[in-house]
Amino acid sequence: MFFNSFAFAIFLPIVFILYWFVFNKNKTTQNTLLIIASYYFYSCWDWRFLFLLVFSTFLDYYTGIRIEKSRKDSGRKFWFWLSIGINLGFLGMFKYYNFFANSFAELMQGFGLKASPFLLDVVLPVGISFYTFHGLSYVIDIYYKRIKAEYNFVDYSLFVSYFPLLVAGPIERATHLLPEIKEKRSFDYEQAKAGVYQMLWGLFKKVVIADTCATYANAIFDNYHSMNSLSLILGAVYFAFQIYGDFSGYSDMALGMSKLFGLELLRNFNYPYFSRDIAEFWRRWHISLSSWFRDYLYIPLGGSKGGLWMKIRNTFIIFLVSGFWHGANWTYVVWGGINALYFLPLLLRKSNRNNMDVIVLDRSWESVKVLANILLTFALSCVAWVFFRAKTIADAVLYLKQIVTNGHFTSQYLANERYNYELLIMVLLFVVVEWNNRTKEEPISGKCQTIKLALCLAAIMVLGTYSDYKEFIYFQF
Amino acid sequence: MKQFLGFTIKTIIITVVLAILLDYCYTSVYLQSNNRNKIEYVYNSKARNYDVVILGSSRANNHFVSEMFEQKGLKTFNYGMSGGHLFEADLMLKLMLERKYKIKTVILEADLNLCNEHQAEGVAAKYLPYFYVSETVRKHFENEDDFKELYYIPFYRYIKYETKIGFREMFFSMIHKKSKLLDNGGYYSLGTTKGNMKNNIISLNPLAHNKYYEEIKQLCKANNINFIAVMTPMCENVVGMDYFDKVKKSYPEIYNYENVVLEDKYFSSCGHMNNAGARIFTTRIINDFFSK
Questions:
Q1: How many Cβ atoms are within 10 Å of B148's Cβ, its own excluded?
Q2: Is the pLDDT at B244 greater than 70, yes or no?
Q3: Which of B26, B162, B181 is the mutation pick for testing A, counting most A CBs within 10 A?
Q4: By Cβ atoms counted within 10 A, which residue in A353, B183, B230, B263 is the most buried?
Q5: What's the structural domain count of chain B?
Q6: With contact defined as beta carbons under 8 Å apart, do A217 and A240 qualify?
Q7: Which residue of A lies nearest to B14 if distances are taken between CA atoms?
Q8: Which residues of B touch A468 (CB under 8 A)?
Q9: DSSP 8-state secondary structure symbol assigned to residue B291
Q10: Nearest to A269 by CA among A121, A168, A398
Q11: What's the domain range around B45?
């Protein structure tokens, strides 16, 4: 059941009505309904993996309590590592086992040895990377005594399995979401309206921007051998907007629908393509994952305390792990590595925290420089996206090589029966709308709401791509 | 909550009004257009006179060279549609007759398309703008599974088939951008670039009484149109070639021309001849049926 499916359009209003009109006695009834709805939502993907979700929930709930109750340090460590081990074990088994087995076999072949690895015939449980990280952060926070263990199983279950964030995040923190879950929610009109606006804007980003860009990006990436330089550059740009529209659209829908239930989730995107350097980009892109790695990997590794080399080492580690988190493929690892390399000059110049202020453009030379930096950062991210999108590292390298060597910048007719440049106007319009609304979460609220709402609805109906249906990219992670 | 209910109702009303308005605008544009595809070329036309009208799928569209019929003094148009089934060919003929076309002969490509009575969604979608304004179109679609959604939900048809009749196509229709589909008397020649030169049709079986084939036959009979049904050539590398014998058995009146062009050099893909092959085939058809 996708957020942009007909089934979900039935499911959400039913849950909303039950939540505010039938199960509104207290927070326990509200939470119970949301858990039932969440488990139903998850079972629509594959009911068998519901047991995994329930087991994972119970494991972290129980180990959290045991860590807190253990009087001896050894006991605390035991329960802590048990939880970490099982959580990462599941993730490793379902997501990475086959990858490592195949990579090992290829390595052996490189040495002239034949290896026939035993491969698992399993599909990746949807959302496993996300709910595992929910559970991990909870257990780690208890271990380091940042939070108290949650004794109410219903509340904890909802924290892990809340359906808007269950399959593709944002990755919530117990410190943020649990306190909200533990309060009875009362209906707030302004919050709910903002939620609807954010959902619609998310839907616009998915069906108009992401899915339309996808048809072009696919046509170019799948036939990159026969594409000229202009098509290849546009292919990378279209993919950049595809993945942004897809994932930030999903996040907007998740945040928006959560507002309908009176729960505010962590913001996941903050107009990343308007970043002035790559450090700022990562403060604006998939914020919940970046901050997760910062708090649970980068800082425990020593962060920036151990001098420059320690900082560089830790930066490379979190980017490589972050790349690997996205999927069991070397292309993601390289993508992470490239981003780490982009970070290097900033670390050496100690300028990675330079652009923390709000972007302001005026008619000064400084603004020209800012604009140039934004374009450069976007171009760098596009180069990295080529590795993220390509099937293999060799494909990505050839793709980039052909951009440089081909040298033709003419229009080309693509496999999707469109010219390569046709989508540019829509993408540019989208950028203008985002730029003008970069201080808000979505562009519909504010002045002339009704007109903007109508325009957004019309755009979804008129410009959306529906016949070539695409799943959300991040569901596979 | 009352405020939110009001807001929700307002949003739903905006959506419905937009859907109705957009539906009206799109339909109006399509009703003015007649140079984008063969369906609107017929729908938005008045009586035309033809000696020969060709109907069928891409195997008609790419195989009958209209120009060669014209050279024989036969006013001809190739209305074959790539990807089309007999469902669409039948409706095309109905619309022609509704518009008082005077047709002497209909040549129907009837071979692989005899094995189903489904609509070819990509092609049938082009008829959908006329749902509300044409009784003939509406009736033709009435028994289709998705008829109710497409008919009763405004603008749904333009969303569902957005690649065929969505914004881009509507925009080109609005600015009267001509397509190539109507050039060369409707014949679309294929080049020598080789596509798939193998084909497996072993699982195909012609229906004993294809509803739309029979309807086309009946319409021709009722309107005194000479009806010629033919099977057109396929390359040699086909598994299940006895399909054509099965067609002949069920429909003895269909002429089997499957084997009049054999060599691979005359094919662009296994089921589609290139221009040279189409010309050999068309010569044979003209000689056999129009040489007197």
A1: 10
A2: yes
A3: B162
A4: B230
A5: 1
A6: no
A7: A454
A8: 163
A9: -
A10: A168
A11: 2-290
